[in-house]
Every structure is written in structure tokens, then in C-alpha cells.
Amino acid sequence: MWPQALQVPGGVARLSLGPAAMRPVVQVRQGDADVQVLVTGDAIEWTAVVGIALVAVPGDAHVTVQPSAAVGAGGAARTVPFSIAAKRYAEQQLKVSPRTVDLSPEDQARYERERDHQAVVMATFSEQPAGVALPSLQMRVPVPGRRSSSFGLRRVFNGQPRNPHSGMDIAAATGTTVVAPLPARVIDVGDYFFNGGTVWLDHGQGLLSMYCHLSRMDVQVGDVLQTGDAFCKVGATGRVTGPHLHWGVMLNRTMVDPALFVPA
Ligand code: ZN
Questions:
Q1: Which site from 35, 135, 139, 209 is most exposed, i.e. has the minimal number of CB atoms within 10 Å?
Q2: Is the per-residue pLDDT at 116 higher than 90?
Q3: Shared domain check, 217 and 242
Q4: Are residues 245 and 135 in the same domain?
């Protein structure tokens, strides 16, 4: 079953919801918002696939289940509990260009605009694109190369603590072709201060993936991709120490470990 379940901060919970004629609507509390959760399966068995935030507090958690979003579908909401185990991620010291740590007023303003834009992109929740068999969320690795196990590392840039590393870095030379890990629709293409050349893909129901530090982006917003379609190239743009692909995977607006979606 994909993704693999790992109930820790940055991991994924798979919650059995039982049978129902229609797909239930599931929400999880994220910060101060209720965010819709991916639900896979059929009338015999539905499963909620819940992304657990890196900032989640270990302990008891739950999702809220509505019978269905369909008009006239009655029934009371219920909660399904799950637990989050503690995981301590290691610390990583990085040396980068000082201007990417101590931001000038102009760069700070640019970063804040981009952060607001990314928040809109990350809130995308669509039905599954044509061709996606949601029961199989196993992904194809987007680029060949050595995969770092750096997801979740608490990062210190030039001695200053910053957000944890929320994706997988794959070592590859500038110009290496990147392919879609699942059928997708392109929902964002841009050049950002920290992430450099970036593409976001929507795989449906809040399952998104992002590709950063790209040297080339050969798609536009709205393009539809099938698994294995080439759509961009590895680079070293944005805040990087060298060429690589930064690959992020998001469920219910939270970055989770991409390693849970691909064979070892
Ligand atoms: Zn990275």
C-alpha cells in the first residue's frame, strides 16, 4: 500500500473509515484551519491518507469524517483517532551565500510576496485528474541519482536556525531531465528567491508535489502530464550549495517525507 504509513511528524497516517456508498469527506486540524484530507478506496473500504506536519505535537490526534459532501446525504460527523509518535530529526549545518540568510529589505519583500503566492498554490484541492488510480499512490522517482535522507533535518544556515528541510534532495547534474511521478496537472511555474526555478504539480485531492532549483521549466500552468513525462531540468537556482533536485510532496497542505511514496 502506498504511501507507506509512518505516524511521526512529517509522516503519513492511513486510517480505515469502513464501507460507505459515497466517498466520505475527511478533515484534519492544521494550525488554526480545518484542511481536507485525501480519501482513497471504494464502497467496500475507504481509507484516509493523512499528512502529519513536521511541527505536529506527538500524542493523540484525530480526523473528522462527514458521511459525504453530496447534497442530501445525511448522517452525523464522527471522529477517527490516531496517534503520532515522537521522532527527533538531526541538525544540519549549511554554508550558503550570506545574502540568502540575512535578507535585504527588497529581498525580504520579495520573499513575503512569494510566500503568500505559494500559500495559495498549496491550498489547491481538486478531484483526481483523469487517469489517476488513487488506490495506487506509489510514485516514480522523478530523477535518477543518490537520494539524501535529509527530510526533516533541522537546518542551520551560516549559524542561524531556519525551517526544517521539508523535502528530499536528489543529487543530479544541471540539465538532468525530471519526470512526473504520477499523472498531474501543472499548477505553478515560477522563479523564487529561496526555491529558484520551481514547478508545482497537482495529483488530486490535496496530493501535490514540488520541484525546486530547476535550470529549465518546459511546462505552463494548466498542462497535463502522465507518469514519466519529462517536464523540467535539474539546476542550482535559488538557495543551494550545488546542483540537485529538491523534491517535495504535500498532503493536506503539509509537507511529508517523499521516501514514503517510492520504493527504496
Ligand atoms: Zn532540499
A1: 135
A2: yes
A3: yes
A4: yes
Strand partners, 214: 197
229 CA from centroid of ligand 1 (Å): 22
Q: How far is the CA of 167 from the centre of ligand 1 (A)?
A: 6
Mean pLDDT of all residues belonging to the chain: 92
Q: Which of 53, 84, 115 is the last residue of a domain?
A: 84
Distance between Cα 199 and ligand 1 center (Å): 14
Query: How many domains would you assign to the chain?
Result: 2
175 CA from centroid of ligand 1 (Å): 17
Q: Tell me: the pLDDT tens digits for 5-52?
A: 999 999 999 999 999 888 899 999 998 899 999 999 888 999 999 999
Return contacts of 105-110, CB within 8 angstroms, 24+ apart.
107/193, 110/193
Q: How far is the CA of 216 from the centre of ligand 1 (A)?
A: 17
pLDDT for 72 beyond 90: no
User: What residues make up the domain containing 23?
Assistant: 12-84
Output the CA 169–ligand 1 centroid distance in Å.
5
Asked if 245 contacts 43 with a C-beta cutoff of 8 angstroms, the reply is no
- 256 contact partners, CB below 8 Å, separation of at least 6: 3, 10, 11, 12, 51, 52, 249, 250
- The rounded Å distance from CA 76 to ligand 1 centre is 42
Distance 77 CA to ligand 1 centre (A): 39
Instruction: State the cell numbers at 90.
Output: 538531526
